[in-house]
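Severity: low
Component: inverse-folding endpoint
Summary: output formatting inconsistent between runs
Steps to reproduce: submit the following structure tokens with default settings.
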């Protein structure tokens, strides 16, 4: 029902945009950046070969390795420790207004000549929040009681998530601002698409690797089964 409702909202709103939104006819249409797919990929390769772009791509492809595990695994581990999934989902509701306001506030600091300064300043705080998330997972079984978890635990989780959102959006908006600033206006669409794609890839591959490494790096002990190990999923099942 939830998915059906939002699917209907999506269809209605996009249909209204298609019928009601009109292009500004007064503006002179810009010249096409490229003539076709082949020219587009040639242009992309010529951009990638630039030394500055290569260095920047290396930076954003590896910059999120340090907090990938905290971002990808914390929620799953909290559920594993007994925090109800529906409660975690409800905790995301207070984050919505914060997610709307943050880009507006942060954009004031990224509009200058050096937008990446905000990115660099937010990184150490986001790394420290990874330790905070690890503490939340460790703390969960300590405060759990028969009725669930105390209110103060959820308050700390919400505060931690709010601080995490601030650092996350500081880095995200800074990268977007930098990409917009350095993109050549003549090929702005192609240039920005390339940099934003690399930015997205830089956030996705570390999380995937972190999730894949959870089992191999987790130390497990078997209780009441002499001579057995729980190192693998199969052994734990047995």
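Observed output (run 2 of 3):
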């Amino acid at each position: 029902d939830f998915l059906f409702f939002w699917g209907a909202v999506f269809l209605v709103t996009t249909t209204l945009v298609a019928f009601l939104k009109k292009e500004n006819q007064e503006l002179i249409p810009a010249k096409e950046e490229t003539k076709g797919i082949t020219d587009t990929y040639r242009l992309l390769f010529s951009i990638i070969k630039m030394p500055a772009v290569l260095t920047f791509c290396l930076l954003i492809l590896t910059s999120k390795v340090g907090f990938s595990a905290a971002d990808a695994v914390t929620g799953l581990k909290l559920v594993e420790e007994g925090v109800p999934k529906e409660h975690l989902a409800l905790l995301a509701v207070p984050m919505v207004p914060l997610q709307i306001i943050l880009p507006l506030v942060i954009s004031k600091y990224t509009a200058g000549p050096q937008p990446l300064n905000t990115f660099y300043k937010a990184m150490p705080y986001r790394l420290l929040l990874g330790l905070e998330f690890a503490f939340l997972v460790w703390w969960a079984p300590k405060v759990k009681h028969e009725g669930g978890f105390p209110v103060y635990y959820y308050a700390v989780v919400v505060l931690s998530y709010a601080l995490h959102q601030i650092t996350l959006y500081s880095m995200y908006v800074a990268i977007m601002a930098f990409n917009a600033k350095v993109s050549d206006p003549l090929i702005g669409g192609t240039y920005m698409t390339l940099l934003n794609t690399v930015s997205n890839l830089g956030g996705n591959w570390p999380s995937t690797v972190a999730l894949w490494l959870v089992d191999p790096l987790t130390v497990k002990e078997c209780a009441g089964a002499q001579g057995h190990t729980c190192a693998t999923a199969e052994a734990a099942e047995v």
